Amino acid sequence: MTAYYNEHDPKAAQWLRNLIAAGHIAPGIVDERSIEDVAPDDLREFTQCHFFAGIGVWSYALRRAGWPDDRPAWSGSCPCQPFSATGKGAGFVDERHLWPAFFHLIEQCRPGIVFGEQVASADGLAWLDLVSADLEGAGYTVGALDTCAAGYGAPHIRQRLWFVGVDHAQREGLERHAGHDSAEGRQGSDRPVAEAGLSSRMADTTNERQHGRRASQTSNGRDAARVEPERLCNVDPGRPNPTNGHWRNADWLRCRDEKWRPVEPGTSPLVDGAAARVVRLRAYSNAICAPVAQAFIEAVMDGLGVAQ
User: Fold this and answer.
1) Contact in structure between 166 and 123 (CB atoms under 8 Å)
2) Domain for residue 241, yes or no?
3) Residue 280 domain boundaries
């Protein structure tokens, strides 16, 4: 088994097991405990670890991007409710603010690369600022992007912050898993960030910023590094859109507010007693957008010089 999935919702956890059995995501085990109950030693044997796993879209997106199951990676999309504009606005004092628990595991286990995502609100930017400061303080290089699913063919906005943290002390391990165990690859792994070709994509841990990669400021004035937006933007008219891509088979339903919304083919409007549909729609709404995650991972791979 290569992967560890942490998901406290029993229904989503069973969905993960079904997806593993069907071969859609990396093989592994599903742990239904709270992340706060997970100890670093519980994770030592696993190559990939996915926290707040939902229905496993990070694993699915890694595969779609050409990231093999046996290449190390961690992921975690922390709960967005404390920082969402539709939530109660409790922010860092909300009990669902679980980044500290996630970061504790990162700090103790030192994964080579960590992918994550959060809602793109003003409070979400403050959250990203904390994440960046914690990771950079632990020696990680951090890159981030604020983008929407509509830019990748989705028929909805779903604006999100995507981030990656890289521990360059372990970069050679990523290259070895990618078949880059050459002398040139080993030399590249020891070079400073700017010389290794990341300067236009990611900030380094010295907090030095070069012209052309300064991001818009977060809520308290710090800069969030970005993966190059032009690497991710859907500028090619031949790329997927709502009529020819991932969502081409969606059914559009007219809702009571007179707006049309896309749903999975065959999904009926919610009615009393339709528990299965509630579970399905809740899982979908909590999941990350796979095509965006895939594009982000591909951009990170390109920036790191890690081949498929």
Assistant:
1) no
2) no
3) 251-285
- Residues 110 and 258 occupy one common structural domain: no
> What are the b/e assignments for 1-23, b being 16+ CB within 10 Å?
ebbbbbbebebbbebbeebbeee
Q: Which residues, in sequence order, are bridge partners of residue 223?
A: 217
Q: What is the pLDDT of residue 270?
A: 57
Assess if residue 265 is contained within a domain.
yes
Q: What is the pLDDT of residues 191-215, one digit of tens each?
A: 333 333 333 333 333 333 333 333 3
Q: How confident is the model at residue 10 (pLDDT cuts 50, 70, 90)?
A: very high
Close Cβ partners of 102 (under 8 Å, ≥ 6 residues apart): 35, 51, 76, 78
At 279, is the pLDDT very low, low, confident or very high (cuts 50, 70, 90)? confident
Please check whether residues 260 and 189 belong to one and the same domain: no
Residues 171 and 126 in one domain: yes
Residues 21 and 148 in one domain: yes
pTM of the complete model: 0.74
Which stretch of DSSP H or E encloses residue 278?
helix 275-286
- In sequence order, what DSSP letters do the residues of 152-198 get, joined into one string? GT-SS--EEEEEEEE-GGGHHHHHHHTT--SHHHHHHHTS-TTTTT-
Sign of CA dihedral 247, 251, 252, 254: negative
Residue whose entry in the numeric block shows the structure tokens 């990070």: 58
**How does pLDDT run across 43-82, given as a tens digit for each residue?**
999 999 999 999 999 999 999 999 999 999 999 999 887 7
Q: Are residues 260 and 176 in the same domain?
A: no
146: β partners: 161
Contact residues for 152 (Cβ-Cβ < 8 A; gap 6+) = 234, 240, 289, 291, 292, 295
- Residue 246 belongs to some domain of the structure: no
How does pLDDT run across 122-138, given as a tens digit for each residue?
A: 888 999 999 999 999 99
Q: Is residue 243 part of a domain?
A: no
Same domain membership, residue 280 and residue 180: no
**CATH for 9:** 3.40.50
